[in-house]
Specification:
The protein is of the alpha+beta class. It is built from three helices and nine strands.
Protein backbone atom coordinates (compact mmCIF):
# COMPACT_ATOMS: atom_id res chain seq x y z
CA UNK A 1 0.00 0.00 0.00
CA UNK A 2 1.26 3.45 -0.85
CA UNK A 3 -0.03 6.53 0.98
CA UNK A 4 1.05 9.92 -0.32
CA UNK A 5 1.13 13.10 1.69
CA UNK A 6 -0.17 16.24 0.02
CA UNK A 7 2.90 18.23 -0.92
CA UNK A 8 1.20 21.54 -0.27
CA UNK A 9 0.45 20.94 3.41
CA UNK A 10 2.84 18.25 4.47
CA UNK A 11 0.08 16.91 6.78
CA UNK A 12 -1.92 13.76 6.93
CA UNK A 13 -5.09 13.24 8.86
CA UNK A 14 -5.40 11.21 12.08
CA UNK A 15 -7.26 8.44 10.27
CA UNK A 16 -4.52 8.23 7.64
CA UNK A 17 -1.82 8.16 10.32
CA UNK A 18 -3.60 5.24 12.00
CA UNK A 19 -3.85 3.48 8.66
CA UNK A 20 -0.13 3.93 8.09
CA UNK A 21 0.65 2.51 11.53
CA UNK A 22 -1.69 -0.44 10.99
CA UNK A 23 -0.25 -1.25 7.58
CA UNK A 24 3.42 -1.22 8.42
CA UNK A 25 5.14 -4.52 7.86
CA UNK A 26 8.66 -5.73 7.80
CA UNK A 27 10.29 -7.00 4.67
CA UNK A 28 12.69 -9.85 5.15
CA UNK A 29 14.91 -10.57 2.20
CA UNK A 30 15.30 -14.24 1.42
CA UNK A 31 18.66 -15.53 0.35
CA UNK A 32 19.02 -16.83 -3.16
CA UNK A 33 19.30 -20.62 -3.38
CA UNK A 34 22.80 -22.06 -3.19
CA UNK A 35 23.87 -23.63 -6.48
CA UNK A 36 25.50 -27.06 -6.38
CA UNK A 37 27.12 -27.96 -9.70
CA UNK A 38 27.37 -31.64 -10.60
CA UNK A 39 28.85 -33.18 -13.75
CA UNK A 40 27.82 -36.56 -15.08
CA UNK A 41 30.09 -38.69 -17.19
CA UNK A 42 29.42 -42.32 -18.10
CA UNK A 43 28.23 -44.29 -15.04
CA UNK A 44 29.20 -41.69 -12.42
CA UNK A 45 29.17 -38.14 -11.07
CA UNK A 46 32.50 -36.34 -10.96
CA UNK A 47 33.87 -34.71 -7.78
CA UNK A 48 31.84 -37.15 -5.67
CA UNK A 49 34.24 -39.81 -6.84
CA UNK A 50 37.35 -39.69 -9.01
CA UNK A 51 36.93 -39.98 -12.76
CA UNK A 52 37.26 -43.66 -13.60
CA UNK A 53 37.26 -43.05 -17.35
CA UNK A 54 34.31 -45.34 -18.01
CA UNK A 55 32.82 -45.45 -21.49
CA UNK A 56 29.20 -46.16 -22.22
CA UNK A 57 26.97 -46.09 -25.26
CA UNK A 58 23.84 -47.27 -23.43
CA UNK A 59 22.38 -47.66 -19.94
CA UNK A 60 23.18 -51.39 -19.87
CA UNK A 61 26.91 -50.61 -20.03
CA UNK A 62 26.67 -48.71 -16.73
CA UNK A 63 24.53 -51.40 -15.14
CA UNK A 64 27.32 -53.90 -15.84
CA UNK A 65 30.07 -51.54 -14.64
CA UNK A 66 28.24 -50.60 -11.44
CA UNK A 67 27.32 -54.20 -10.67
CA UNK A 68 31.06 -54.97 -10.61
CA UNK A 69 32.47 -51.75 -9.08
CA UNK A 70 29.63 -49.73 -7.56
CA UNK A 71 29.80 -50.91 -3.93
CA UNK A 72 33.57 -50.43 -3.67
CA UNK A 73 33.39 -47.03 -5.38
CA UNK A 74 30.66 -45.84 -2.99
CA UNK A 75 32.87 -46.71 -0.01
CA UNK A 76 35.57 -44.43 -1.44
CA UNK A 77 33.25 -41.66 -2.68
CA UNK A 78 32.72 -38.31 -0.98
CA UNK A 79 29.62 -37.78 1.15
CA UNK A 80 28.14 -34.40 0.28
CA UNK A 81 27.36 -32.37 3.41
CA UNK A 82 25.09 -29.32 3.32
CA UNK A 83 23.22 -27.03 5.69
CA UNK A 84 19.40 -26.94 5.58
CA UNK A 85 18.08 -24.50 3.00
CA UNK A 86 17.19 -23.78 -0.60
CA UNK A 87 19.37 -25.34 -3.28
CA UNK A 88 19.59 -25.58 -7.03
CA UNK A 89 21.37 -28.68 -8.23
CA UNK A 90 22.82 -27.71 -11.61
CA UNK A 91 23.57 -30.99 -13.37
CA UNK A 92 25.47 -31.31 -16.65
CA UNK A 93 25.86 -34.14 -19.13
CA UNK A 94 29.53 -33.80 -20.04
CA UNK A 95 30.11 -36.68 -22.42
CA UNK A 96 27.35 -39.29 -22.19
CA UNK A 97 25.88 -39.94 -25.66
CA UNK A 98 22.37 -40.71 -24.43
CA UNK A 99 19.72 -38.93 -22.35
CA UNK A 100 20.41 -38.52 -18.64
CA UNK A 101 18.45 -37.37 -15.64
CA UNK A 102 18.85 -36.61 -11.97
CA UNK A 103 17.05 -37.90 -8.89
CA UNK A 104 17.52 -36.55 -5.36
CA UNK A 105 15.37 -38.04 -2.60
CA UNK A 106 15.23 -38.77 1.10
CA UNK A 107 17.19 -41.90 1.93
CA UNK A 108 14.09 -43.91 2.85
CA UNK A 109 11.96 -42.63 -0.07
CA UNK A 110 9.99 -45.33 -1.85
CA UNK A 111 8.68 -44.15 -5.23
CA UNK A 112 5.92 -46.81 -5.13
CA UNK A 113 4.52 -45.52 -1.83
CA UNK A 114 1.84 -42.87 -2.53
CA UNK A 115 2.22 -41.43 0.99
CA UNK A 116 5.93 -40.78 0.34
CA UNK A 117 5.01 -38.76 -2.74
CA UNK A 118 3.09 -36.43 -0.43
CA UNK A 119 5.35 -36.39 2.62
CA UNK A 120 8.94 -37.00 1.50
CA UNK A 121 11.41 -34.94 -0.52
CA UNK A 122 12.03 -36.15 -4.05
CA UNK A 123 13.05 -34.08 -7.07
CA UNK A 124 13.84 -35.60 -10.44
CA UNK A 125 13.81 -35.11 -14.16
CA UNK A 126 15.25 -36.30 -17.45
CA UNK A 127 15.88 -34.73 -20.84
CA UNK A 128 19.55 -34.04 -20.20
CA UNK A 129 21.15 -34.75 -23.56
CA UNK A 130 24.86 -34.51 -24.36
CA UNK A 131 26.13 -31.01 -23.52
CA UNK A 132 22.95 -30.05 -21.66
CA UNK A 133 22.74 -28.59 -18.16
CA UNK A 134 19.51 -28.63 -16.16
CA UNK A 135 18.56 -27.09 -12.80
CA UNK A 136 16.67 -28.91 -10.04
CA UNK A 137 15.42 -26.69 -7.20
CA UNK A 138 14.79 -28.23 -3.79
CA UNK A 139 14.43 -27.27 -0.13
CA UNK A 140 16.51 -29.55 2.07
CA UNK A 141 15.67 -30.15 5.72
CA UNK A 142 18.04 -31.95 8.12
CA UNK A 143 18.32 -35.62 7.24
CA UNK A 144 19.90 -38.18 4.94
CA UNK A 145 19.38 -38.11 1.19
CA UNK A 146 20.53 -40.01 -1.88
CA UNK A 147 21.13 -38.74 -5.40
CA UNK A 148 21.77 -40.60 -8.61
CA UNK A 149 20.94 -40.86 -12.28
CA UNK A 150 18.69 -43.83 -13.04
CA UNK A 151 19.16 -43.27 -16.80
CA UNK A 152 22.97 -43.36 -16.52
CA UNK A 153 22.77 -45.96 -13.77
CA UNK A 154 25.09 -44.27 -11.30
CA UNK A 155 25.50 -45.43 -7.71
CA UNK A 156 23.25 -43.86 -5.06
CA UNK A 157 25.51 -41.15 -3.63
CA UNK A 158 25.00 -39.92 -0.04
CA UNK A 159 24.00 -36.41 0.97
CA UNK A 160 23.76 -35.41 4.64
CA UNK A 161 21.92 -32.21 5.61
CA UNK A 162 22.69 -30.97 9.11
CA UNK A 163 22.80 -27.74 11.11
CA UNK A 164 26.24 -28.64 12.45
Amino acid sequence: MLIKMKPSTGKIGIAAAGLIAACTFSYQATAAPTIIELVQVPCQFLDIEKDHGFTSSKKADCETINEKTGAERLQKSEVMKLKPGEYIFRVSNENVPYELGFWLREKDYNWANPVHKLTKTSVSGGGMHLGTTLDYKVTLEPGEYLFSCPLNTTPDYSLIVSDS
